[in-house]
């Protein structure tokens, strides 16, 4: 009697990591997802009073876990340096799912900037965020300078 038979054509079982990785899908954010992005930013300590979050297309990518928006990044393709900012994931998401969403958002942002003709990608990172700096270092980012981000509202809406 054979106990270790292999069924030809059968798919190997997915690991937990592969299952989670496949659950996270990166999409181009449409205008109706703007308020969800604002909530994710607010949950992560960034609030921009008076900002209109109803017109965000085509500058944002979102990470989705099934139908739930769990993360975002703003992508600004430019030549020779494009930028990605506000890369955030919901705090309530598990550590593993957060890591997968962050990695997929970074890679998708880089691909978007490259497709737009950019040769470099830049981002501003909070000095206190050592863990995220480690993620960027693993993806071969190099620290260019120490900065603090400032914002100013330009028009009344």
Task: Walk me through this protein's architecture.
The protein is built from 4 helices and 5 strands; from the N terminus they run H-E-H-E-E-E-H-E-H. The protein is of the alpha+beta class and 157 residues long. It has helices spanning 16-23, 34-43, 95-115, 130-138, and strands at 24-28, 60-65, 68-76, 81-89, 120-122. Helix content is 31%, strand content 20%. The mean pLDDT is 87.
Q: Helices and strands in order, then pairings?
A:
Elements: H1 16-23, E1 24-28, H2 34-43, E2 60-65, E3 68-76, E4 81-89, H3 95-115, E5 120-122, H4 130-138
Q: Major β-sheet, in short?
A: 5 strands, mixed
Structural class: alpha+beta
H/E series? HEHEEEHEH
What characteristic shape results from the CA principal axes? globular
Low-confidence stretches: none
Distance from first to last alpha carbon: 76 Å
| Rg (C-alpha, Å) | 19 Å
> Strand portion, in percent?
15-25%
Tell me how many strands there are. Answer: 5
What average pLDDT do the residues reach? 87
Q: What is the count of DSSP helices, taking H or I runs of 4+ residues?
A: 4
**Strand line-up in the sheet with most strands:** 1-2-3-4-5
Which key terms come to mind for this protein?
alpha+beta; 157 residues; 31% helix; five-stranded mixed beta sheet; globular
